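Hi C.,

You asked whether I'd gotten around to modeling the 119-residue construct. I have! Everything is below, sequence then structure, no commentary in between.
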Amino acid sequence: FCMFGKVYGRCSNMEALPRDAMGWTVEDVKQWAVEQVGIDAEDADKLVRQKIDGRALHTLTEAKLERCDIPIGPSGLLMEAIEGLVGGGGSSSVAGGVVLSEGPFVEYWRRMWDVQPAD
């Protein structure tokens, strides 16, 4: 089951990615961005060129994405999806095999997929 499949109609290899997004490689981030967030491969390649792995993904801002020459539309999708991954608090939930920190979008994902908080 994938995290963004119901929203974007895409479900593929999300299960192959590490559960903790902080451990994602540059290629994992590209796969997630294309297959789950829905940005095109050209914009995802810009993340690869900037060596954005899971740890770097958590530090991205709209300004940084703009400096990477990622258009506003895909940038907004990425920021929304990143917020869903990192949230703002200390505890986490699992949705589609990905660990999500507590944050504004986690409750939405829990309701959507009836996901319980991780221990």
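If it helps when you're writing up: DSSP finds seven helices and two strands in the chain.

Thanks,
B.
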